[in-house]
């Protein structure tokens, strides 16, 4: 049993830690009137709990109109133990699970192909593998969604600074962080710009309890809606400084255009002030940016190479210095405008004091350092040291999972990254994010692919994929995609895949076909045969005999087909007028002649035809019935059936008489010889004699 907190030294399998977190409270909306008699809790599929709430029986009978049928004896409700990202609904999780399967399967196929080509140069293979992982990461990132404007924003408000859009998810924010630092080689040359884009999309997620630049701008926007002279409000300049500190140039220029000096009725009186505002706006909009995509629609002077960027940066900094020393500042009579614009210039010049005061979170301060002070920082070690200094300047009380993940990436600790992915973002993130982690870190590649004795001889990568596959297989809506992940586990995946396939329901035709396709893809021939046999016997026992024979034929199960043939033979061997024969005769007609290629079914077809023609001979309805019966006897050795006599005594005597008539007919001058083998009549006569003896013994 697990040890108790007061007894940490006990020999417990799973000892409790003496340090406790705050308990997590999950509301249970059962709707049952108190008092409750009992509450039962049981695990359901995935992270669901089944909570059964039973009512206390009332000592007095209640009126009929006061009895709620829904809670007559109690209720059973589901409680989801939410772990990690709560902004993603269950339907979205299933959509992500299904959508990520093609990208994952394609990457695994390419990995197997590259392993088969291991004779090539390792550098060529590694470069090609990087491209494959990057394509895989882009596909997953697109699957996780793009931020869209809110549906109620039909017309864009010109005074709207922060456009309302769908709430971003921490899952995609974490995925993009791993792509930036592990996969995208080009991002290493323009890392500051990538982090600017990332912070612009996900700054609201860096903390839920403290102020961020995004929340500051949202609050400022609400306040400015009721302010006529925005330049008199300190929050206007504070918000603009914060946006400039993290490189949100579009917002800064838009806020500068809100300045009162742009009003037509004030241009003559505030000409110098408006000129300073416009000069700062031009400098902001022409800030050099080292990024390869000038068509992104963002403001700035784009440079694709480092020499071009350095040249443009020095020229731009010269314009900043000239404006800072300009004499026009003395002529600016509006104090708030003069001080606010000068603070913007100091931020662009890299003044550490103003940059620190303009940012709220250490992540924002890190982006500011990379933009204005350390543009060419290379290597995660230097970036981690800078991030450590930023955390000291902007301490945070609580690190959420997203920031803990970033710290693990900067510290080059795959253990921390994997732990945060598992704890905060769930098994899906671990199973798919490992490919990014191992592609960008040799240490992570060795750590996660090393086979461990403590894990039963499997690697950490395979362990997490097995866990994710088990979660998928526990839900009926996702169990059909679990084989893709089990097949990627070389040690234990195939064995668990066999168990999963055997547990699939076999009463549905489509499910059987899917299972067979999975067996074909992964060359599981033995499992395929067993699935076919099981499906055949299930359908046969439940009255779907046609389906049963069909699946058994595909399985080439001669033993069971022979048993079925014997059972059918017992029914067909009865009187031709028997209703049961009509039923089995219809079954044989439904199956067609192709069924006669396995077991004893070929014999049954021929025997059925023989008895049909024999009946016609007895009724005198067909002139060539005797000939067809003879042909049937010759084609199949019906009379040599070893199990029991096929014909009764009367039927055998009838055939012997017909053979005698046929032999005597040869002496007639008008006899026409049939196309029969020379020894046909003697062989049939001998077989009939043998059958007659066995029939007499059986009827006695």
Automatic annotation (TrEMBL):
<dbReference type="GO" id="GO:0015031">
    <property type="term" value="P:protein transport"/>
</dbReference>
<dbReference type="GO" id="GO:0031965">
    <property type="term" value="C:nuclear membrane"/>
</dbReference>
<keyword id="KW-0472">Membrane</keyword>
<keyword id="KW-0906">Nuclear pore complex</keyword>
<protein>
    <recommendedName>
        <fullName>Nuclear pore complex protein Nup85</fullName>
    </recommendedName>
</protein>
<dbReference type="GO" id="GO:0051028">
    <property type="term" value="P:mRNA transport"/>
</dbReference>
<comment type="similarity">
    <text>Belongs to the nucleoporin Nup85 family.</text>
</comment>
<keyword id="KW-0813">Transport</keyword>
<dbReference type="GO" id="GO:0005643">
    <property type="term" value="C:nuclear pore"/>
</dbReference>
<keyword id="KW-0811">Translocation</keyword>
<comment type="function">
    <text>Functions as a component of the nuclear pore complex (NPC).</text>
</comment>
<comment type="subunit">
    <text>Component of the nuclear pore complex (NPC).</text>
</comment>
<keyword id="KW-0509">mRNA transport</keyword>
<dbReference type="Pfam" id="PF07575">
    <property type="entry name" value="Nucleopor_Nup85"/>
</dbReference>
<dbReference type="InterPro" id="IPR011502">
    <property type="entry name" value="Nucleoporin_Nup85"/>
</dbReference>
<keyword id="KW-0539">Nucleus</keyword>
<keyword id="KW-0653">Protein transport</keyword>
